[in-house]
Amino acid sequence: MKLNTVLMLLAMWVPVAYCGNGPAAARVNGEEISEWRLERYFAEFLEDQGRAVASIRNPKAYKQLRQAALDALIDRELLWQEAVKRGVVISDAMVHSQVEQTRQAIGGADKFARRLEDAGFDEAGYIEYTRRELAARQVFVDLTQVAGPDEKQVRAFYEEHRAEMNRPEEVQARHNLNKVAQGADPSTVEAARLRLEQNQLEATDVSEEQGLEMVRTYLARQQQAQARRDVLAQLRSSNKIERIDDE
C-alpha cells in the first residue's frame, strides 16, 4: 500500500469520539461525518494530488475539490454500512496483516505510534477501523464483479480500431495537433505536425493476437469502471444522505 493511501485512511477513519465534535459536514442514514473529519481528509486528499489548500485561489475550484473529498467520505460510509447489512466478516489474520503493512509503510513501530496518536487513535482502535476499511473494500469488490467482454465485442472493437492500434503514437500526435491548432502559434503547430510525420515513419505493427488481448484488457477495464460508478450511484440513491457542508 502506498504511504499516501495509508495516511489518507488514517484521516478518513477517525475515532468516534472525534466524529461527533463540532458541526456535521454530512449525514449518511443519520451517521455523521463531521466537519473536523472532512477538514483532515481534505488536506490529505489535496496532498495526494500534490496540492495544498493555500495554493487554491479559485473559489469555484476550491468548492469542487472539497465536494469531491466529501463524496469520497460519503461513499466510504455507504460501503461500510452496506458491509454491515450483508454481514461481511474480515478475519483477525487479515486485519493484523494489513495493520503490519501500514506500520512498515509509515516507517516502523515508533513512527506508526506517533502517527496514530496524531490522528487520535490507539492501536486497538486502529485495528478495528482497519477491519471496517477492509469490510468496505470487500463489499465494493463483491458488488462490482463483471463477467468481462465477450469475444464478439472484442473482435468488433478490434476490427474497428485496428489501424489506430498499429499507430498509437500517430493517434496521440493527431490529438495533440488538433489541440494546438486551436489558437496556437504557427511554430507550435508546425512542431506538432513534424512529430506526427515522425510517428508515421516509426509506427510498429501489432499482431492480431496482441491486438485482441489489448482490446480485451481495455474493455474489461471500461466495464469495471462503469460497474463501480453504477454501484456507488445506486447506493447514493437508495440511502439517505444529507450534505450539510455544500449548503
Automatic annotation (TrEMBL):
Gene3D superfamilies from the UniProt entry: Porin chaperone SurA, peptide-binding domain
Its ancestry begins with: Bacteria, Pseudomonadati, Pseudomonadota, Gammaproteobacteria, Pseudomonadales
The record, for Pfam families, names:
SurA_N_3 (PF13624)
**Where on the tree of life does the source sit, at the highest rank?**
Bacteria
Enzyme nomenclature, EC number: 5.2.1.8
Instruction: Show the GO MF annotations.
Output: peptidyl-prolyl cis-trans isomerase activity
This chain's protein is named peptidylprolyl isomerase
Please state the span of the N-terminal signal peptide per the UniProt entry.
1-19
